[in-house]
């Protein structure tokens, strides 16, 4: 990536007011403008990155991890996942979503594009309380005759 405002800032700093980033720049410049900060985090020798976006994730299926590792992609949903899905209760999807969000946040993901069945409970019990951003969509499937 190239252009104004893109790239690495050596000896950089970030000024935050409330939940908003209000300035990014050289440490000396931000110390002059925001020198009386209430809280300072020393991140010398660290990299500070923006939150990552996962635009296509199924956190509710985290509990199935590894179940279809050896199945060709074209078959994984119908031949591997579908037989298990009839036993999945809403509380399983909530627990899977909580695990998936926790794992993702620990690795820097802050925004999710989540797909699943009846996303309302996951939004209420997992995504909203965790403070992440999420675009949630209910799954729509259409399978033709004989498939």
Briefly say what this structure is.
The chain is of the alpha/beta class. 33% of the residues lie in helices and 22% in strands.
Which descriptors would you attach to this protein?
147 residues, alpha/beta, two-stranded antiparallel sheet, elongated
Secondary structure: number of strands: 5
Strand arrangement across the biggest beta sheet: 3-4-5
Q: What multimeric state do the chains show?
A: single chain
Q: Please identify the structural class as seen in this structure.
A: alpha/beta
Measured by DSSP, the beta-strand proportion falls in 15-25%
Whole-number tally of structural domains: 2
Rg calculated over all Cα atoms: 21 Å
The helix fraction, in percent, is 25-40%
Largest sheet: 3 strands, parallel
**Average of pLDDT:** 88
Ends apart, CA distance between termini: 44 Å
Order of helices and strands: EEHEHHEHE
Helical segment tally? 4
Which term fits the overall shape?
elongated
Given as residue ranges, the uncertain stretches (5+ residues, pLDDT < 50) are none
Please provide a written account of the structure.
- The chain contains four helices and five strands, in the order E-E-H-E-H-H-E-H-E.
- With 147 residues, it is α/β, with parallel strands linked by helices.
- The chain folds into two domains: 48 residues, no CATH class; 87 residues, no CATH class.
- The strands form two sheets. It has a three-stranded parallel sheet with strand order 3-4-5, covered by helices on one side.
- Strand 1 and strand 2 form a beta hairpin.
- The longest helix has 17 residues.
């Amino acid at each position: 990536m190239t252009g104004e405002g893109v790239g690495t800032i050596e000896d950089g700093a970030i000024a935050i007011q409330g939940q908003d980033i209000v300035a990014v720049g050289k440490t000396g410049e931000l110390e002059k403008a925001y020198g009386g900060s209430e809280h300072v985090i020393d991140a010398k020798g660290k990299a500070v990155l923006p939150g990552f976006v996962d635009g296509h994730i199924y956190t509710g299926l985290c509990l199935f991890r590894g179940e279809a590792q050896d199945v060709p992609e074209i078959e994984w949903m119908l031949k591997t996942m579908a037989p298990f899905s009839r036993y999945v209760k809403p509380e399983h999807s909530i627990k899977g979503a909580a695990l998936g969000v926790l794992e993702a946040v620990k690795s820097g993901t802050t925004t999710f594009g989540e797909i699943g069945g009846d996303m309302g409970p996951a939004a209420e019990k997992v995504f909203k309380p965790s403070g992440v951003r999420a675009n949630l969509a209910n799954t729509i499937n259409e399978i033709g005759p004989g498939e």
